[in-house]
Amino acid sequence: MDFRRLPKAQIHDHLDGGVRVDTILELADEYGYPDLPASTTGGLTEWFNQGRSGSLEHYLEAFTHTVAVMRTQDGIRRIAYEAGMDLAADGVVYAEIRFGPSLHMIHGLAREAAIEAVLDGLATAQRETGIVLYAIASALRQGTDSLEVVRAAIPYLDRGLVAFDLAGPEAGFPTDDHLPACRLAREAGLGLTIHAGEADAASSIWRAVARCGATRIGHGVRIADETDFDGREITNLAPLARRVRDHRIPLEVAITSNLNTSAFPSVEEHPFGALYRSGFNVSINTDNRLMSGITLSDEYELASTTFDLGPEDLSEITINALEAGFGDWPTRRRLMDDVVRPAYASVASSQAAISEST
After folding, report:
1. Which of 125, 209, 234, 312 supports an S-S bond with 227, CB 3.0-4.6 Å?
2. CB neighbour class for 62 (10 Å; exposed up to 12, middle 13-18, buried from 19)
3. To 5 degrees, how large is the angle CA 171–CA 161–CA 50?
4. Are 103 and 110 in contact (CB under 8 A)?
5. Distance separating alpha carbons of residues 122 and 88, to the nearest angstrom
């Protein structure tokens, strides 16, 4: 399969985790930022690849430098535009890109200014390529301003900002600390997705759902701990795992990112394939394209090769992402019916014809 040509959808991609290296170098020079760990494209690309970071906390340290060059509306607008263009060039037809408005306040920007810059950049990329793009406003679990982030996001509901997210380190920072923000987001009509079950126990997934009202979970792969997972198949689901599966709670899985943060020791031991075969509502996502050194096509190929997923499986997983999306439903349904299903059916038919001929 030519994975770049396949229509793909993703619902978990961080803007500050997917900045072009050349853009980082140019903006650092423009703003006089002196602390980049390398001064060449090759050297900086190698440094940003967090394949050996070893933990979520170390993995997150790389964001210091991308946030450092996201300090003006023009810079943020450019980065959002380039993210949309890169995704479109990779065959992505639908994406929700998340970012932390508060992170840019250290450079003097209001949250609203950062939001407007992101939405403007995404809108331009969408006009030029036809990709469907939406934004998600994130707050950090270790912070105290989640309510302010939601308040800043609400006025942009009709301009392409569709959801609120809690991100950052999980252990020691329970979602319960942000109940007022989660409640306000739901009441205002924002979608709600929460990082959980990546570096913390599986119980954090249900706390995000039951206590905070999340309708999607970022990562969520620790749900496999609530099953008998032998490294290939899942059996004997505990009550928590059954609820997540049977309630069809979308899990925004990012395989390479999970390996980078040592959530699992090897790709062969990652539960994505077993979760999919057991009926869990999983999708394929990049998380941070820069830090993991990947594209969504890379992730689709990795999942297909490692877990023996054919075009019918990848079609279903792509549909999972579109159905779980927070964007305009008629648009998502059109992409499912007119773009995704026909493309994967064509690939499956071609493969069948080749198999018969041999």
Report:
1. 234
2. buried
3. 40
4. no
5. 11
Rounded CA-CA distance 224/238 in Å is 10
Contact 287, 12 (CB under 8 A): yes
Closest CA to 253 of 273, 283, 232, 230: 283
Residues known to be catalytic: 198
Could you tell me the two tokens for 184?
């306000």
* Residue 237 CA to its chain's centroid (Å): 26
Instruction: Retrieve residue 140's tokens.
Output: 């950090």
d(CA 162, CA 98): 10
Q: For 82-115, what is each residue's pLDDT tens digit?
A: 999 999 999 999 999 999 999 999 889 999 999 9
**Whether the Cβ atoms of residue 162 and residue 327 lie closer than 8 Å to each other:** yes
CATH topology of domain 8-348: TIM Barrel (3.20.20)
Residue with tokens 């038919």: 349
pLDDT in tens, 127-177: 999 999 999 999 999 999 999 999 999 999 999 999 999 998 888 898 989
